[in-house]
């Protein structure tokens, strides 16, 4: 079951992202898994006007996979220069599968220099030096902006050479206690917990203490609590639920 709740307590982070996108200022977003980075990116992109030039890419540690994902996203967005250079015809997916990394790097560099875009790389984890060399040229291309999201600076790997300026970094902080409490109430409602005769007072206290302000963990624990294997009578078996919730954030 998916428990979808609105953004809570991340107003400043979203404002910073929107401003950076508007100005095309490259930005690094740092925060542990579940801190809200992907949620804010997707919500912000959903609210952008149609025809915007922001390209979202889920990061891949393999350079060839990253090149294919980025090329596919640009083709799907209608990037004119890339479509012209690729001449993929009626089967862009088949064309993409036949390309080498060397060809994709060259065509991406040339196309983005001719027709810049804003690229968001989400979930960076240990970037290699070849990936750094590819993105370095894109990062410094006139008109381009590169946004990156990672757990911490160490997770950037070689890309730490690009995102070294603390003025271009956005650190996601834990939710305040009132915001965490509000998020729990919303997540519990969306998961249907309040409609059942459960001891939510005890569960709420344990969730908020364990999550320590991490919104993703709060939502995940509420989602799991709706599953029968974690419930005995009126009580939610917190220990096994907590262990299983943590597995998602390791």
Brief summary of the model shown:
With 250 residues, this protein is of the alpha/beta class. It contains 11 helices and 7 strands.
Strand order of the largest sheet: 2-3-4-1-5
Largest sheet, strands/sense/barrel: 5 strands, parallel
SS-based structural class? Answer: alpha/beta
Share of β-strand residues = 5-15%
CATH class of the largest domain, named: Alpha Beta
Order of helices and strands: HEHEHHHHEHEEHHHEEH
Indicate the CATH topology of the largest domain: Rossmann fold
Please provide the count of β strands. 7
Radius of gyration: 21 Å
Mean residue pLDDT? 94
Q: Rough shape?
A: elongated
What is the terminal separation in angstroms? 20 Å
CATH architecture level-2 label of the largest domain: 3-Layer(aba) Sandwich
Describe the protein.
The model has no long low-confidence stretch (mean pLDDT 94). α7 links the parallel β3 and β4. α3 packs across α6. This protein folds into two domains: 161 residues, 3-Layer(aba) Sandwich (Rossmann fold); 71 residues. It has eleven helices and seven strands. The protein is an alpha/beta fold.
């Amino acid at each position: 079951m998916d428990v979808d709740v609105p953004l809570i307590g991340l107003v400043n982070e979203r404002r910073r992202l929107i401003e950076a996108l508007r100005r095309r200022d490259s930005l690094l977003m740092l925060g542990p898994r579940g801190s809200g980075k992907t949620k804010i990116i997707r919500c912000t992109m959903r609210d952008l006007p149609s025809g915007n030039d922001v390209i979202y890419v889920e990061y891949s540690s393999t350079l060839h996979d990253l090149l294919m994902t980025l090329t596919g996203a640009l083709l799907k967005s209608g990037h004119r220069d890339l479509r012209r250079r690729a001449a993929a015809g009626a089967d862009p997916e088949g064309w993409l599968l036949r390309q080498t990394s060397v060809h994709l790097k060259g065509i991406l560099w040339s196309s983005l220099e001719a027709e810049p875009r804003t690229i968001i790389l989400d979930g960076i984890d240990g970037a290699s030096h070849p990936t750094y060399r590819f993105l370095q040229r894109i990062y410094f291309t006139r008109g381009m902006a590169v946004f990156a999201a990672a757990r911490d600076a160490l997770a950037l790997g070689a890309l730490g050479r690009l995102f070294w300026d603390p003025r271009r970094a956005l650190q996601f902080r834990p939710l305040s206690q009132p915001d965490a409490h509000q998020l729990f109430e919303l997540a519990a409602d969306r998961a249907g917990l309040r409609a059942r005769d459960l001891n939510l007072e005890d569960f709420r206290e344990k969730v908020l203490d364990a999550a320590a302000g991490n919104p993703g963990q709060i939502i995940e624990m509420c989602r799991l609590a709706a599953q029968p294997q974690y419930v005995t009578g009126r009580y939610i078996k917190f220990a096994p639920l907590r262990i299983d919730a943590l597995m998602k954030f390791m």
